[in-house]
Amino acid sequence: xxxxxxxxxxxxxxxxxxxxxxxxxxxxxxxxxxxxxxxxxxxxxxxxxxxxxxxxxxxxxxxxxxxxxxxxxxxxxxxxxxxxxxxxxxxxxxxxxxxxxxxxxxxxxxxxxxxxxxxxxxxxxxxxxxxx
Length: 132
Hints:
Structural class: mainly alpha
Strand content: under 5%
Mean pLDDT: 90
Helix content: 55-70%
Number of strands: 0
Largest sheet: none
Distance between the termini: 31 Å
Order of helices and strands: HHHH
């Protein structure tokens, strides 16, 4: 994760430097603000990666002398398939239509459906504290 953090920190420096140059050269506030915001977002990602890199053990690919076989084994749990994201996308589209037409009754229903879909997606594999 240290390499990824460095990459995003370099990107952050580039965008802030670009914002300064663009602000003095073009004197156009919208583009300058956009570059500052993009730099801020990349700063968030780079800072998060630095934070995570200090707390996890180094991966095999972080070692310069690593072999392909060093990365063998189980990588974690990945969901084999789920219909919750489809429902969440449909509920988000429904919420967008409700907001576009600003029907309050439709917004209430859409928010409720979005919350149900998010809860289903988050707790899909949750078995509770009493199960193994």
